């Protein structure tokens, strides 16, 4: 009877060791699962941030195209104003020449 009891105690100790080992393995697995979940969440956040940045970049590109178009229009306006300025300058010199000529003969 004592031998059976000792055998049962020994078996119980072995089972307790196995339970402890399994519990330790479960804790390690839980840590790994938590770590994986955190990594997946970070990747989701990074993807979301990446999409936001891509959207902002597209908006910036559109703004650049608009500004380039506006700049081209402003350049054309400046060319027109330059031509008008040249015409006015020529007209001014013509009027001044005629004024000086009239003063000279007056």
Structure description:
This protein is mainly α. It has one helix and no strands. The radius of gyration is 45 Å and the shape is rod-shaped.
Estimate the strand proportion. under 5%
Helicity range: over 70%
**Alpha-beta content class:** mainly alpha
The count of strands amounts to 0
Low-confidence stretches: none
Characterize the main sheet.
Answer: none
Estimate the global geometry from the Cα principal axes: rod-shaped
For the termini, the CA-CA separation is 152 Å
SSE string, helix = H, strand = E? Answer: H
> What is the alpha-carbon Rg in Å?
45 Å
* Mean pLDDT rating: 97
Oligomeric state of the chains present here = single chain
Count of helical stretches: 1
What secondary-structure arrangement, pairings included, does this model have?
Elements: H1 2-105
What's this model, at a glance?
The chain has 106 residues and is mainly alpha-helical.
Name the descriptors.
106 residues; 1 helix; rod-shaped
